[in-house]
Structures are given as structure tokens and as C-alpha cells.
Amino acid sequence: MEAGDRSPNSRQPPFLLHFKISTLYHDWPTEIYQGATGNLLSPFMPLRIIELAGDPMQRGRRHGELLALEIRRMRRALLSYLLKVTGLVGLAPVLGLLLFFSRRFWTFIPSSFREEIRGLAAGAHLEPTFLLLINVLDDLANNFPRCSALAVGPDLTETGAWLTGRNLDYPLFTDVLVELQTLFVIRPHQGLPLASLAWPGYIGVCTGLNRAGVSLTQLSAMSRECSLRGMPAALRFRQALEKADNVQEVAVRILQAPATIGNNVLLCGPQGALVLEISARHAAVRHPVNGLLTVTNHYQSVAMAAVKGRFPRRPPLSVLPSYYFSEAYSQARNTRLQQLARPPLTPATLKKILADPQIANPGSVVCTFCAPADLTLWVAQAPVPPVNRGHFEKISLARQHSFF
User: Fold this and answer.
1) How many angstroms separate the Cα of 357 from the Cα of each of 131, 165, 319, 352, 371?
2) Fewer beta carbons under 10 A from the terminal one: N or C of the chain?
3) From CA 222, how far away is CA 310, in angstroms rounded?
């Protein structure tokens, strides 16, 4: 592939619900790592893990019924933020604009995902338009997250197998995103089962792994090319993971669908890794150099230089200072990843790399690393960001679910 043009009945208290879901799906062995600082920040609380199976309506309704209270918490967080930055007079028109523009994506969303959103809304007793907004908010905001990721090949790892890891850094809603982090284990009625580390109400994939061992990490990329006439990014990535069983085919499927915004997408599997650098109309592919791929929030391919965009200003009330919204910070994190990725690399050393103070930051709401060939994830658990300072829970998907 070369660079080129693209074709265009839960009402239980939250703690009880959390405990019920966690214990229901935590009858497999887990392994807990101490944080990189050596400090235990809080008693261990199992990661919320939910299995969703059946047709799209069934999956969506189950999701909504189990997490109705949490989805409403997400809704309150968004409305509260908009109220603070716009005032009471400005809230209705700004929210109305967001809902209006989110509906522009509807015809580009596959029918199965539209049905899942309808089921989700029915299960949570919320309007479908809000659930749609949750799933396209990053497309509308042109990807506010600041993220870092890497993939390391057999010559660099202790076991001789590919490993990959990522931080997802968000400038807003950090308390809610940390508390409500959820691993969805999805068995679609057609396609490959997959796991998606996300949040209540979110059906797309920004961090995921399918049964074939292909992992996907979505990062923002500042691009001058954006469009409302495309499939929302995280839904496009989920569709590719459901339909393809190797890194190259996942990449092809992502590039075939009409895009919306700039993204860097790190794909890693048992046999290799690559990065897709994407805008609304162009794309390029980066391959490992000496067994290493590092990714942050700027394009690194010469072919994408012409469509690089300006980094956004710091949003109001962000937990991050202005420097964190600059290409200089993105380049600095990328350089630091390259400096620290020295063999022999293991899950424990990836954890230390991602917790490095020049890489992690107060917006690091997700930290996870993955051994794709083993279908194994490690997920950070902490009460406050950066979550890298907390425990890491090891999850063996092949042992957890028979269909994996």
C-alpha cells in the first residue's frame, strides 16, 4: 500500500452494579502489577468487563441496560462542561449545534451500528441522538486526545514476539473517564469477536484487539483535511477489526472507508506492525525501523506533510497546560519513546516506558499494553490520572472466553 488519494433493568446503585458486573466476569486468573512509582495508590478494584453478544439490537440493549447509570453520568459530565464554558444562555444553542452536526454522520454509519445505537438508547432510556453524539464527539472536536504508542518487534523483545502499548491522554472529563473505563468483549453475530477498552455508551474502538490477534490503537493527528461525509473514526476501526484477520487486511479495510479527520492508527499482530497516517482524503503507511514503531500526534511520513494541520488551542478548563497542545510536545514524546525502547523489552519495561514523566501526563486516562499473539492485555487501574502510577491488571482473553 502506498500514500495516495482516498475515496471519499439496571437501576442499581453504581457501586453495586460495578461489583455485580466485575465479579460476574472475573472468575479467570488476573495478575496485578505495582505502579512504576512503587506506590499503591488505592485498594485494587477489578476492571469492569462486559460481554456483549447477539444481533446489533440485542448487543446495544444489553449495553444500555447494564450501564444506564454510567451513561447518564457521561451525559451529565458533557452538559456540565458545556454549561461552564457557555453559560446558561449558550448551552442550548451549542448543544443543538453539536447534535445537528453529529446527525450528519448518520447516513455514513453501517446499518448494524445504527441498530446498535438504537438498542443502546432503548436500554439506557436515553435519546439516540445523544448516544450518537458520544460516538462522534472526537470527529467533531477533531480529536482532542494527546496520545503516545509504540510497537516493538521480535528482535527487541525478550520472548521474540511482538508487543504494543499505548497511553490515551484526554484534556477533559479525566475523572469520569478514569472511573468509568470499561472493557467490552464483543461477539458480533457476523464477524470476529473483539475486545474494546472504552466507556459506557461508546460502541467504537479506539483501543482494541480481535480474536485473530490484531490490535488497534487510535491516536489523533492534526490534519487540514476534515469532513462530515465519512464514517466516524472509531466505528470505522471497529468494523475493520470485526471483518479482517491480519494486520494488512485490517489496514486495507480502514483505508477503503471514507474518513473524517486526521488519525494515526497503530496496528500490531503476531506477524508484524504498521502505522496508518490518515486524513479525510489521503493516507500513508509507515513500517517498523529496526523492529520499532513509535506514534504520537503528528504525521511522520513525508507523503502527509502537505496536509499537516495546526495543533488546537488548549480547551477551556483543561487539566493540561498549553504546551501539551503543540507539535513540539508530540515530537518530544515520540523522541522519548525511541530513546527508551531498548532491548530486551517485556510487558514490565513497556509499563515503565509509558509511565515515564516525559510521556505520561495529568491527562493519561488509559494505559494498556498487549501481547497480540497471546491475546493478552494489561490495563492500568488507578483512581486519578496518570493511571500509569496504579495497578496493572493482566487479562488473558483466550482463557476468559471460549470464543476467543
Assistant:
1) 35, 16, 16, 10, 24
2) N
3) 6
Q: Which of 23-27, 89-93, 164-168 has the lowest mean pLDDT?
A: 23-27
Q: How far is CA 147 from CA 58, 201, 256, 272, 376, in A?
A: 33, 22, 25, 21, 21
How high is the pLDDT of residue 18?
A: 35
Q: In CATH, which of 3.60.60.10, 3.50.7.10, 3.40.50.1980, 3.10.180.10 is domain 4-54+141-400?
A: 3.60.60.10
- Taking Cα atoms as reference points, which of 122, 168, 126, 121 lies closest to residue 144? 168
Hey, is 57 helix, strand or coil?
Answer: helix
Query: Distance between CA 73 and CA 108 in Å, rounded?
Result: 28
* Cα Rg of the chain, angstroms: 19
264: how many CB neighbours lie within 10 A of its CB?
Answer: 26
For the chain, give every domain's residue range.
Answer: 4-54+141-400
Q: Calculate mean pLDDT across residues 101-123.
A: 98
Query: Which helix H or strand E contains 264, and what residues bound it?
Result: strand 263-269
- Poorest-pLDDT segment among 41-50, 300-309, 319-328, 354-363: 41-50
